[in-house]
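Priority: medium. Attachment 1 of 2:
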């Protein structure tokens, strides 16, 4: 079975002849702005593996950028979606109630680590929609106009979320953007300012938020502070728990809602169902959690969860949408969560973390181009530099390593504000043998390219 195979390239090069034809057709039919650096045309996928149209086998460490925590083509998901499709494909929730939407909302209300005992959830289609809706309900509840986001943040490509996103390569030429979005510094400890001791770094980054209150928006006009528990596009940078606790105190002091953007970090990726479960352990729960990506195993769906008093502050008609909470997506999501809980995907993410971190740390000692190794659970970043002393980013080397890995059957992706971080987002169903094979391919690729 494909899900148990190892990487194998049977064509002389990638892309093979069949894939090359499809990529040429793509170039004629699809805008080039939808960039793809991977010369791969998928034919089928199982587990953590995919086969292209030429019969090459690839190990996927990107997983649809965090969508496939449960892997490709899980039979139970196929059956759940098929069963639902035989009843009805669509039922707009503003028009008719369907059981899957209600059951999934009940499940997320039970497991999401947000403040409050009585929670409510509603659904959208993408991570960007979830984040934008979180801002909507924060404004409705607080009656305030502004939000605070962070350096390195990625929240989406709608007009509001482009404004929220730090890296403006994702928004080039798209302004003007909505007002009321202000930015503080995220605690990127590997690249903290020189001269700041580690013990004082958290205080420095908290002062950055306080400076927003002074220089941009007084605290009494801030509706929400939106945080990724572990930045994705920003370079797989974890939010230190001590910093999160301090942000929670700021929010409590000024009546600001704390929003955890778990679009990429949710659904067992970090060794817990949600990364903000770690916040809960530290008594720093968010007020709102947004989720998407792996929630439905590949069918478009996102969710917004908060306590009842926040949700009920939203005026009628302000939230909802035609495809939000589609029955097929809800059926798949319910099955995803059931499998993850039954098979203890949280523990598997921790096992993967131990294996990958151990290998990465060994590589770091041998390879001077590896500057930092960081992450939570099976969401791990490898920061590539020109040398460990200067920490100068080396995005060129990362681009070369990505292409070298592809030619040897491993799909990896870059991240980071400089494009110099290799991200690990492999499906959590990856086998130990596949994991070792991927680590061997990556290490060999770095050695050849450096």
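Attachment 2 of 2:
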């Amino acid at each position: 079975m494909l899900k148990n195979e190892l990487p194998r390239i049977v064509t002389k090069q990638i892309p093979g002849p069949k894939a090359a034809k499809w990529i040429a057709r793509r170039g004629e039919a699809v805008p080039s702005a939808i960039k793809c650096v991977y010369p791969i045309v998928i034919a089928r996928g199982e587990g953590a593996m995919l086969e292209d149209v030429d019969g090459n086998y690839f190990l996927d460490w990107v997983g649809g950028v965090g969508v496939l925590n449960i892997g490709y083509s899980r039979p139970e998901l196929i059956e759940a979606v098929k069963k639902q499709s035989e009843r009805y494909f669509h039922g707009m929730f503003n028009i008719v109630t369907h059981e899957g939407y209600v059951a999934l909302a009940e499940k997320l209300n039970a497991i999401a680590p947000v403040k409050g005992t009585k929670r409510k959830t509603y659904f959208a289609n993408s991570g960007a929609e979830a984040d934008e809706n979180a801002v909507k309900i924060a404004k409705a509840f607080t009656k305030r106009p502004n939000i605070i986001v962070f350096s390195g943040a990625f929240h989406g490509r709608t007009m509001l979320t482009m404004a929220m996103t730090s890296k403006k390569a994702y928004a080039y030429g798209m302004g003007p953007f909505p007002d009321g979005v202000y930015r503080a510094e995220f605690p990127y400890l590997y690249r903290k300012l020189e001269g700041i001791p580690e013990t004082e770094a958290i205080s420095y980054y908290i002062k950055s938020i306080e400076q927003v209150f002074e220089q941009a928006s007084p605290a009494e006009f801030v509706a929400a502070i939106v945080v990724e528990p572990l930045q994705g596009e920003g370079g797989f940078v974890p939010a230190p728990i001590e910093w999160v606790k301090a942000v929670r105190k700021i929010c409590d002091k000024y009546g600001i809602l704390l929003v955890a953007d778990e679009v990429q970090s949710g659904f067992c990726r970090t060794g817990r169902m949600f990364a903000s479960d770690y916040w809960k352990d530290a008594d720093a729960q968010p007020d709102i959690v947004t989720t998407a990506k792996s929630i439905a195993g590949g069918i478009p769906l996102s969710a917004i969860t908060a306590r009842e008093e926040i949700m009920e502050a939203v005026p009628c008609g302000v939230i909802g949408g035609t495809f939000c909470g589609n029955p097929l997506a809800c059926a798949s999501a319910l099955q995803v969560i059931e499998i993850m809980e039954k098979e203890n995907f949280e523990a598997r993410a921790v096992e993967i973390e131990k294996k990958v971190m151990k290998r990465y740390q060994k590589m770091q000692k041998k390879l001077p181009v590896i500057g930092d190794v960081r992450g939570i659970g099976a969401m791990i970043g490898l920061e590539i530099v020109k040398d460990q002393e200067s920490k100068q980013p080396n995005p060129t080397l990362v681009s070369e390593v990505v292409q070298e890995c592809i030619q040897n059957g491993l799909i990896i992706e870059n991240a980071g504000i400089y494009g110099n971080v290799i991200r690990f987002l492999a499906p959590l169903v990856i086998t130990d043998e596949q994991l070792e094979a991927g680590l061997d391919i990556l290490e060999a690729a770095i050695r050849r390219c450096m």
